[in-house]
Design goal:
With 378 residues, the chain is of the alpha/beta class. Helices cover 47% and strands 10% of the residues. Strands 1-8-5-4-2-3 form a six-stranded parallel sheet, with helices on both faces. It is globular, with a radius of gyration of 19 Å.
Length: 378
Amino acid sequence: MALIYYVTQIQFEFGALSLLRQECERIGITRPLIVTDPGIKAAGLLDKALDMLPNMAKAIYDQTPSNPTEAAVRAATNVFHDQHCDGLIALGGGSAIDCAKGVSIAARHDGALKTYATIEGGSARITERCVPLIAVPTTSGTGSEVARGAILILDDGRKLGFHSWHLVPRSAICDPELTLGLGPRMTAATGMDAIAHCMETFMAPAFNPPADGIALDGLERAWAHIERATRDGSDREARLNMMSASMQGAMAFQKGLGCVHSLSHSLGGINPALHHGTLNAVFLPAVIAFNASAESIRKEKRLERMARAMGLASAQDIGPAIKEMNQRLGLPAGLAAMQVQESHYEAIIDGAMADHCHKTNPRIATRDEYRAMLLESM
């Protein structure tokens, strides 16, 4: 039986941040903890959010790292309890939103955070006690504002997923205006993350036609606008379409992702300095080539349908087009440019084999096949 579920309340428009207090009141949050990061604070976006919450008691945790960690979740949870908060506002990219989701679990559930990780059988242990969360994305990439999952680096070094419908934000405030100041490199990397979500979820074999339709439309929007948004950050049409594509990718990826993400999660845990979206961009061509022979891909002509959404002549053009796009966007040409070495392969493969995305790829990769994908991505 297919489980098809969509998803949460979304406020989507330029200026939607003005609805932040209204959404707090609707959900019943009277004393929020705002979870954000130093870059958002320095850019003045935290002040913009605070301006929308006059005369409301609130606390701030602004030290989310670029890849959220269990230590950051612990520190933010301490602020949540010390300041007697009753809700969460995540302001930032996927890192801040995922950190806030970690707090949503940790603040109301006993035991070590790893107890609730998906590969530890923890999804069923995440309950309705989760702290209510409003997500305000400031990038167009992860789509975590409408997703049931979070990716966190635990104290033991593993980069693991946490998944539950109780983690879906009660409200997503998608204001493309908040992305106008995002720099070209981050626009490109987060945009390729959105493209990877749309492509991988469309290739995943589970039956979910609504997810397929949302993913294809998101891919078409992102592919048509990522270069414009990267080259001219003030292009409002491009920013709107990239934020929509990001949201759509995450609405759809409840269907499942695949080897791009199992590799990216693993390598990102080994070296947290590597940006998740950049890794996805580099891994996509090799994984698409690997998936091409999968029965579900061939039977339903999924690569041909993606090629049409991208304006390409044939499925064989997808991999080269992604490599060319990465080059035009100024992203690394491969893993070697990010100082990844063959000596890292076995640890990367270990993590990929254990990742929750490994089994939702249209072909289940062996260690040797993962090794071949790594070599192809160098």
